[in-house]
Known about the structure:
The complex is a heterodimer of chains A (about 280) and B (about 300). Chain A is mainly alpha-helical. Chain A has helices spanning about 1-10, 15-30, 35, 75-110, 110-125, 130-140, 145-155, 155-170, 175-180, 185-225, 235-245, 250-280. Chain A is built from twelve helices and no strands. The longest helix of chain A is centred in the C-terminal third of the chain and has 38 residues, at about 185-225. Chain B has a single domain (about 90-305), classed as MetI-like (MetI-like fold), CATH 1.10.3720. Chain B is flat and about 85 Å long.
Amino acid sequence: MKLFNKKKRRGGVRPPVFGFFCLGFFFTAVIFANLISPYDPNEGDLFNTTMPPAWQEDGTMAHILGTDMLGRDILSRIIHGSRMSLLISVGCILFYGSLGVILGLISGFRGGRTDMFIMRLADLWLSLPGIILLFMLASIYGPSAKTIIITFGIMGWPNYARIVRGECLSLKQRDFVRLARVAGCSELRIMFSHILPNVFNTIIIMATIEVGGIIVLTATMSFLGLGTQPPSCDWGLMLAEGRQYITYAWWLVTFPGIAIVITVLGFNLTGDWLREVMDPKQKLR
Amino acid sequence: MQGYIAKRILIAIFTIFAVMTVVFFVFRLGPADPVAVMLSPNATPQDAENLTKKFGLDKPLIIQYGNFLKNVSKGDFGTSFRFNEPALKVLFERFPATLKLGLAAFFVSVSMGLCLGILSAVKPDSIIDRLGRLLALAGMSLPSFWVGVMLILFFGVTLRWLPIAGRGTAMHYVMPTLCMSLYPIALITRLSRSSMLDALKSDYVTMARIKGVPEFYVIMLHAFKNAAIPVITVIFGLFGALMVGSAVVVEYIFSWPGIGRLVMESYFARDYPVVQIFVIFVTFVVVSLNLIVDIVYAYIDPRIRYQ
Lengths: 285, 307
């Protein structure tokens, strides 16, 4: 009976076709932004401002999703905005991922007091809401994509450190690590060329799952005016600009939001699937 | 047990102290000159010097830090540039609005999340389970600021059913509460579902069923009581951080006169003392909540006490 259940469950992990579809959209936009976007995203046409999308009464096929208050084409801005989302989220994850992985490796490998110190620090860190650091940094260094990346970079490491430490603790006991020690490898070498490749799977899964959340967070920051500044193409920023015209131009706030949702759904579905396939032990959070 | 609580309290005090220190140095060492921000455009160099003296900014940094700690111990967190009143007072005037909204969102998200989580764990693959999973995915993937804007567009602008900004009547609470609780609902549903599924598979639940305990009591008394522990930690532990993060966003969108809106206004007006007190206050609230959770946790779960 139990065996049967297990089999059924394994068959139940279907690849998320819809998620792949969403990601396909997103990466096409990122890679071919210059080829497929009909207009220059920053070039306004002051004779055609706030045009509704093509299927509405005053819309034209020239601007399928309409134009904004400066006459810039919404579709082109959304396509180019995908690059900004990817850039910021990958920047954040690379920053705090590497910080977390290094601290986790040291913590798990060295053990003892170092381990205690780093893990206590991680506990402290997790109890602080990230947005307050962003307020501080943005009020001093000015809001920008760089401020966002630095803030989340500083805030995000504890999760990675914990997971990597856990894996490292069990890997440390394995024969290949002992052999490496006997062979006279330095601690650094064992950490980075023996243990690190073995935790890579976990890191990739975590990163995929987190991209979605990071995109939402960074878009929120740009929406609040704490992130990227005009005139750059950013979905959160487009929403913030469109908010003032919400009573008569619904398309300004709707389409950038749909772009965010499609992207985030893609990453979330794919991330959950990756975790189930590659690491069935871990449960959904 | 007492040692455990004492250790937790010490750590909490240390955290708040550390954050205050960081806040102090980040604001002082940054490139922005607070005096330049405060002065009007046609001020003379003499005015700048007077102001520098008045705030003690001409003294060495370490003495400034000492003065800062001395003032803080007296409950003085500086004066708001904008209102010319103590920053703490400005903050507390706006806090009740945030608290009310936060509590409303808290009750909605906990009750909805727990109901959906438990029901979907009890009947896997039923309609409720599918609905719960869909809602969890939506809550994780929909940015709350966009949901807020869409709610305004649909219920406020198109249908004109609900007021789009401000507070006063119960109707004003509907959209901000909904917007604020979407993510917590998703989180609690997901977590309570998975921990209930584990509990329902356990031996003690099978035992209770064999004894002939009615199914409702099996679920609520045997399974849920055990499944609740991780859920409680998340509910209270993340609650502070979540509420602060989404309070800023939601209050900004719906023009809710709480501390989230206050800190946005103060940030754009370069009113640093208010931003500073906000940071310290939020840390205090979040750290105290975590402390309470740790202590309650130790009472509920003896395994932690004897570690």
